[in-house]
Design brief:
174 residues; alpha+beta; Peptide Deformylase; five-stranded antiparallel β-sheet; two-stranded antiparallel sheet; 25% strand; binds ligand K1U; binds zinc ion
């Protein structure tokens, strides 16, 4: 398994719409393994393939808290079938928007149809953090980041801060 580089905002690649996977084969399974390793290494609870530059509709998640009881989940071509009208609020973060957090409202429950790691059709009813995380990751497949839900002012401030940090990183000579 390989730890990949996670792309950070601002980056046009993150704004691409990811393409459906035709068949879950060895290549996709290797990608899912690499995504999981990359997500665990970055201490995240979710990752979409586009965050490592691959525009495929693939998501990995693990919202378990126990280091010794990992529960990875794999979603290929996920489709939300039903969203609750009731909203819940979570403080969201994103590995592609480092060190920025904001409270975001999303439907509190959702039903998702998807293919699993072995390409088998599955159906999941999610609530709580799992529902939030699935919706956050599915936004990535459409090129949407959580900062897009903030006011124009807050979003601009965050993007400016991230651009500045990127500029600084480019200037570090070793
Ligand atoms: O970059 C990502 O898409 C992963 C993201 C998933 C996520 C976290 C929280 C709410 C919605 C979606 C992260 O893992 S951010 C980093 C993180 O570990 C975290 C941040 C806030 C709460 C819980 C975890
Ligand atoms: Zn994210």
């Amino acid at each position: 398994m390989t730890i990949k580089t996670i792309l950070t905002e601002p980056n046009k690649i993150l704004r691409q719409i990811s393409k459906p996977v035709e068949k879950v084969g060895k290549e996709e399974q290797i990608l899912m393994d690499d995504m999981l390793e990359t997500m665990y290494n970055a201490k995240g609870i979710g990752l979409a393939a586009i965050q490592i530059g691959i525009p495929k509709r693939i998501i990995v998640l693990d919202i378990s808290k126990e280091e010794n009881d990992k529960t990875p989940m794999f979603f290929v071509n996920p489709v939300v079938k039903n969203k609750n009208i009731e909203l819940s609020t979570y403080e969201e973060g994103c590995l592609s928007v480092p060190n920025q957090f904001a409270e975001i409202d999303r439907p509190s429950e959702c039903k998702v149809e998807y293919l699993d790691y072995n390409g088998e059709k599955k159906f999941l009813e999610a609530k709580g953090l799992l529902a939030t995380c699935i919706q956050h990751e599915m936004d990535h497949l459409e090129g949407i980041l959580f900062i897009d839900y903030l006011s124009k002012l807050k979003k601009t401030m965050i993007i400016k801060k991230l651009s500045k940090q990127k500029g600084k990183a480019d200037r570090i000579v070793v």
